[in-house]
Amino acid sequence: MSSATPVNPVEIARIALKRLSERGLPPTPENYAQFYNAIVTIKAPESKTATEMQLAWQVLYKLDDAAHDMGEVTEGLLSNLSGSTAVMQDSLGSLQAVREAHASQSVPPEETHATLEDLLNVVISTTHNVHSTVTTSHSDLQTIRDSIRHIEEDLAFNRKVLEQDALTGALNRQGLDHLLMREVKRAQRNDARLTAVIIDLDEFKAINDRFTHLVGDQVLVHMANLTKAVLRESDILVRYGGEEFLILLVDTDSKGAAYVIDRLRLVTGRTPYMHHAQRIEVRFSAGIAQLRNDENGRAMVLRADEALYRAKNSGRGKTEMAD
Ligand SMILES: Nc1nc2c(ncn2[C@@H]2O[C@H](COP(=O)(O)OP(=O)(O)OP(=O)(O)O)[C@@H](O)[C@H]2O)c(=O)[nH]1
Hints:
The protein is α+β, with helices and mostly antiparallel strands. The protein has nine helices and seven strands. The chain is 66% helix and 11% strand.
């Protein structure tokens, strides 16, 4: 596994100086800056920077503000409407009394007329009040709706940041949890096929040891890019571990998956990573498992992992199918 991002600048500087002395390089400002920047960009698959976490929190705060505003608007609207309802009810009661008095001729017509006029004024002003409250609330609600739309966009962006492996751009394991459930449900609903493949780079430690961890990182990026190029757009690539990738092949059975992996093997064989003028060959082992009717996504991934284990033990550079 790669080391977590050292967020403390002093710690980064210490590591940069150590790496320089390991390589016998003089600590010139250029050398130092190059190593410092390279270390800053190293990230563990699951680690997130303080800034990324802060972004996520900001969205939560905005959401909290919008919910608070919505609560205030709704409360204002309800209290105003209930006040107006009480006034209307009073007016209707008085109207009934005036009608009865008029029918029994117990009140002179001029008095009835004056009372009716008063009541009408009350009803008009209450209706006017209700109308202006509804108009204001309508515009407040529109503002809140716009805020919520922005929050939705922020959430989608944050989700992407939180579920993406910063080094390779593949999904991280958090992202896998979410998508695996979705794809398994979709496959079961549509009676479709779904296959998981786990690939693990062979002898990767030797690449790190020989060319440094930073070059190892670039080899991982290279591998992720080659894999993305071989996959269909609907397929899903996940950084499953340090030097392990998981691929979810949608609408594909294990035979189709084996074909895709053969193609990937061909492509990686023909496209070594070039470090200056040196070729770094990338080889991998793979385990394949197709979703069964009676299992969930995790069980499928576990079977792919077991198949990978067999591929590793049978000499590496091979693909094994799960039982
Ligand atoms: N550069 C780099 N190396 C990593 C990263 N994550 C894990 N590794 C390295 O991957 C290597 C994995 O070593 P091993 O588990 O022994 O596997 P291997 O050397 O690939 O050998 P086999 O899998 O048995 O073929 C270790 O040296 C880890 O430090 C990473 O993010 N970047």
